[in-house]
Request: fold
Amino acid sequence: MNNWLKTSILMAGIIALFAMIGGMIGGMSGMLLALLLGGGMNVWAYWNSDKMVLRMYNAHPVDAHSAPELYAMVEELARNAGLPMPKVYVIDEDQPNAFATGRNPENAAVAATTGIMRVLSYRELRGVMAHELAHVQHRDILLSTISATMAGAISALANFAMFFGGRDANGRSMNPIVSIALAILAPIAASLIQMAISRAREFEADAGGARISGDPLALADALQKIEAYGQGIPMHAADAHPETAQMMIINPLIGGGLSNLFRTHPQTTERVARLHAIARGQ
Reply:
């Protein structure tokens, strides 16, 4: 299935879950109130999420004077992609990782850790930055922000429903066992959908980054090296804010889920295999 179609279906699912929980709390009026609340949260996230995430990671801006090599690299890749020059940030973390943020290409930022700048070669880091600019090009940051905001709101509503009980469409109190079951399962379902959206977008960004850089194998080599070097190195900001893990090029959380269902990112081996296939097709 086309990744954009899959993402659209998954987003529809997470919105439906949100409406369902709202309806469970207050019937039809609760559903409408929940959708209004979700809309308001997404408007807030649209305007503020980039600043919030950069603060979480204590990222500091750099320019052509303070980080000439990184800045020139991003400038060249942005030109290749036909994008405005994003802001460039560096994060003082040993774990090799990177992410992009911003509501649109005109207000985008890319960030790299000091760890990734030490571990990767110039060519490999260029592949990673091209991947992040592909996220900007595809407007993935907005999509991931909305899915994360909705998933968080579903969890909050579900907790409210569990403590105060739910109501059916006619306003009657629901069976407490049903209310508790829905309150427990809905946030899990929302998280699974959010993670599936993240995995689909990573494949698209890998392919887009390969086109922007013109060097798919650079990103393939970088992904393998990041995973190998990053194991066992904590990323403190990600540990404190696990909802941001989906933004990174590789999951920064140590000891992730036991199943692919609970992965924020595709298996690195599959990503590398796809990049090698792209390289063979060039």
Notes: The CA atoms of residues 75 and 127 lie 13 Å apart. The first helix runs from residue 3 to 56. The chain has a mean pLDDT of 81.
